[in-house]
């Protein structure tokens, strides 16, 4: 399937989850769409591979709520179209010190957006989750039904298959080295092989390579720092495996404070539970150390204490490496590139280790922006490039116990 000739309505550069979701949105609306990927499709060198990502509606920032709630609906819609599941429902539990500003902001956001939730003390957490999770006396938990697990590689494949089904042309092993304005015709996208592609519009979703490509194309240096992160899986002790498995009412979880720890029920690896630190080491995406990543003692202690000794905390049973594209404020970059490109080139990047869950809605927004110049249903001022001109740290937030710390420390 595809088109004759080399002119397209929209060229999407980068076929991770954001680019693949965008290509699907564009193609299903009848646009001649080209999706380009510099490596093999479904490669493991970026941020869109692996076996699980959490999805939750509880954020300290109100402006993510509409993206998350729309994404829940779009995940269901896309998997109904493809015929297999990538989204598995579960509860979500946020825990942390009762005075943690970021956790208190989560509660405020839940109230502001009418998200059903319960604020629990230590005893109530133990009762709600049948003694599988223990928190200190001065901590609280926030339990919410809007949680779940996404299968990442499977999800990217789903979007690519749906894009192909709707007529998009998909090309991998095409490294884009330049994007140039082509008069009134739109843009010309040039590959390292010299091959050129013409499109009326272009969307750039280059992940960890976004900063270098955008600087080459426009001279703008986006403050997006690639981090290599180590995802850990821990062995559940014999006889307790079912207690922490998906479908057992065990939640996805996030622990606020330092370090910020997140995880999922046992799903992809039977008998192993995912629990990892949100953060990593600065890296060049083309010259990565490829581990082995360090496992902080604080994570081992957290495993031992929170799971009451029912999970082996001595060392991870398995690890996987992934890359974050981190902005100083951990908020996304979704904007027009501007300059000579005007609204012909749209960029989506800096998803900072928490964007995957929102990829269906982000794909819709990027498609809307490149086609019509605006996107309904979401406030984009927090994601504009100009915020870094006004303040190098980006969006100002009134809590510092979590946000803004990840680039100051190395695991």
From TrEMBL:
InterPro entries cross-referenced by the UniProt entry: FAD-dep_OxRdtase, FAD/NAD-bd_sf, MTOX
The entry's keywords: FAD, Flavoprotein, Oxidoreductase
Pfam family, one: DAO
Boundaries of every FAD dependent oxidoreductase domain copy: 9-369
Gene3D superfamilies to which the protein is assigned, alphabetical: D-Amino Acid Oxidase, subunit A, domain 2, FAD/NAD(P)-binding domain
Keyword check for Flavoprotein: yes
UniProt keyword Electron transport, yes or no: no
Listed cofactors: FAD
Residue spans crossing the bilayer: none
Protein family membership: Belongs to the MSOX/MTOX family.
Protein name: FAD dependent oxidoreductase domain-containing protein
Organism: Hibiscus sabdariffa (roselle)
